[in-house]
Specification:
By secondary structure, the protein is α+β, with helices and mostly antiparallel strands. It has 18 helices and twelve strands. The two termini are 45 Å apart.
Length: 602
């Protein structure tokens, strides 16, 4: 299998030229975050991703994980790699310095997350969930809980999980049944959770589970959910590991992809022999009772953005492998290509193969820019000295999060599928490795909230709730940047296309606001609205990239020239999709609701 090479040049370009790393480094807490430091961090991360994690990717896919002696055993080599990961300080990059973190911006941490996910998606899921747990505890836990658990979570000595879903509930968290009974200074947790990523393993000495449960007197629905910290092993007041808690993984799911990541069914309070809390797993309340769902969204929103960058990662990895294969695979002679002695040529010269590769490349680069920018808005929101600037940045990050998650993972389905297509019949053969990226990518549109949930979040919570205010502010910023592109030599067509797209999105927003009271309609059009928004916002960012590249072209003809060509392709063959998406929104009719119950299978 072709090994992974991190696209550090493009990552640095996006962070410095599109995200605005210099603006972040001027904010309190980020003063030492220079472009030189970030470049060094990314180069070292690239070495770890390619040298340590990438060789284990196919190992995890083939071996997977299993339960032995009542405990989950991860794939061969994963534990050793994780110890190197922790020793290198990679888990602590974007965490709070007061608990041992390095304190770099989240957008920089997200770039390393892309590398871990591209090199080995299954491995990368473990620190991804830990980072979400860190965010939730740092934001909402008591000082005692933070002091007891955060340092080891941030270092990576301990890992974290998110326990939401139950078999009868699925995405409907109002239906969860896990119970929590107060018992002195703690609670006894009883219940079963499913689909718990890295719910158990032997790579770290402790696992910190964040669990949604109901207290005995909690109100019905989502307003009666509380959040609890449940350690796999108890921790003494001095921070030492003590006896086993009454929590265990009872099975590991057999999945389509991410085989190296143990997806567990977890039982809390089921009677682990010799464990503490035999009447229930011992857990500690995070924050206040009945506010658990809002706390969990801190963790979930972090995870959603990271899953978005998983889509970026798998798109880029599939693209790299497809380019390598197309450059080596000799077959036929494309039109206008002089034949060699064997009357054949590498398939990368065939027009349709080039179309597929350019589509893969442009979607990977566009989604990377969208995800990094979203993370940078949260960085600015959490650190800006100017309160108004901070508030606006948070609103922008919140608006873009469902788009970054859903659009980036949806296009990754297309890109990884194209990777198989470029390989032809060999792509359907598992030994080539192309199929693994497609299988691994398939979950990204499902976990941490399906694409439909993200689309409804965008329309209902992020657009309609504020009357479109933040979306219109984004459209105005896009128009300001458009003014910089208008008149630039060779960019006239790009400027015209972007203007048309912005105006079409503006009109669709007005139309949607006019129909906001029709819940059936807004739910029915949400997916296409989200895909249209993603396509246009990514197009805006790609246009900005081309403008910067044109100004720096003399510095690096290969890189900046390729960037401009990639943007031109995006505008020619991807941006036109936005018109179709938004047309579908406004052409919405009752057909999708019209089949009767007896007609579905006719």
């Amino acid at each position: 299998m072709t090994e992974y090479t991190a696209p550090t040049k493009d990552m640095n370009f996006v962070l410095n030229e599109i995200v605005g790393l210099d603006s972040l480094s001027s904010q309190p807490g980020f003063e030492e975050c220079s472009s030189e430091l970030v470049e060094t961090v990314l180069e070292e991360a690239s070495k770890f991703a390619s040298g340590v994690l990438s060789p284990l990717n196919s190992v995890g896919d083939l071996i997977g994980s299993k339960i032995v002696g009542g405990q989950v055993r991860e794939a061969s080599g994963f534990s050793e790699a994780y110890q190197q990961f922790v020793a290198g300080g990679w888990n602590s990059l974007a965490s709070a310095p007061e608990y041992g973190g390095t304190g770099l911006p989240e957008c920089v941490g997200l770039a390393t997350t892309e590398m871990w996910s591209a090199a080995n998606t299954s491995f990368g899921l473990c620190p991804l969930l830990s980072q979400g747990a860190i965010e939730a505890l740092f934001s909402h836990a008591s000082q005692d809980l933070r002091e007891t658990f955060l340092t080891q979570l941030i270092s990576g000595e301990w890992t974290g999980t998110m326990n939401l879903t139950e078999s009868q509930a699925g995405s409907d968290l109002a239906a969860i049944r896990t119970k929590a009974e107060r018992n002195g200074d703690h609670y006894l947790i009883k219940g079963t959770k499913i689909f718990i990523t890295w719910g158990d393993h032997q790579m770290a000495e402790n696992i910190i589970h964040l669990v949604l449960a109901r207290t005995s007197d909690a109100p019905e629905g989502v307003h009666g959910i509380s959040l609890f910290l449940v350690p796999k092993k108890m921790v003494t007041a001095g921070g030492e590991i003590a006896q086993r808690n009454n929590v265990r993984a009872v099975s590991v799911e057999h999945k389509m992809g991410i085989h190296g990541s143990p997806t567990c069914v977890m039982e809390f309070g089921s009677g682990v022999e010799g464990a503490a809390g035999m009447e229930g797993a011992i857990g500690y309340l995070v924050g206040e009772e009945n506010r658990g769902l809002s706390y969990m969204f801190t963790m979930m929103n972090h995870a959603r953005l990271c899953v978005g960058v998983q889509g970026v990662a798998l798109s880029d990895r599939a693209y790299q492998k497809a380019v390598a294969y197309a450059s080596d695979r000799v077959q036929g002679v494309p039109a206008n290509t002089p034949p060699n002695e064997g009357n054949t040529a590498p398939i990368i010269h065939h027009p349709d193969v080039r179309r597929m590769l350019m589509l893969m490349r442009s979607l990977a680069e566009a989604s990377r820019t969208l995800c990094y920018l979203t993370a940078a808005n949260f960085d600015m929101g959490h650190h800006a000295a100017d309160e108004v600037l901070a508030s606006l940045a948070i609103k922008r990050g919140e608006l873009l999060t469902p788009v970054a998650k859903a659009w980036s993972t949806e296009v990754s389905q297309e890109v990884t599928s194209l990777g198989v297509q470029v390989h032809g019949g060999m792509g359907f053969i598992e030994e080539t490795g192309a199929a693994q990226f497609m299988r691994d990518a398939r979950i990204t549109t499902i976990y941490e909230g399906t694409t439909g949930i993200q689309a409804n979040d965008l329309v209902g919570r992020k657009f309609l709730r504020d009357g479109g205010a933040e979306m219109y502010r984004l459209l105005e910023e896009m128009r300001q940047d458009l003014a910089l592109i208008v008149g630039v030599s060779d960019f006239e067509s790009m400027a015209q296309d972007l203007e048309v797209a912005i105006n079409r999105l503006d009109a669709t927003c007005h139309w949607l606001l006019e129909h906001a009271q029709d819940g059936l309609l807004t739910g029915g059009v949400a997916f296409n609205f989200m895909m249209g928004v993603g396509t246009i916002v990514a197009g805006w960012l790609m246009a900005k990239s081309a403008l910067v590249a044109s100004q720096k072209l003399a510095e690096d003809q290969d890189f900046y020239g390729a960037k401009i060509i990639t943007v031109r392709f995006y505008f020619a063959q991807v941006l036109p999709r936005a018109s179709a998406y938004l047309d579908i929104v406004k052409n919405h009719d009752a057909a999708q609701y019209s089949l009767s119950d007896t007609q579905w299978c006719n």
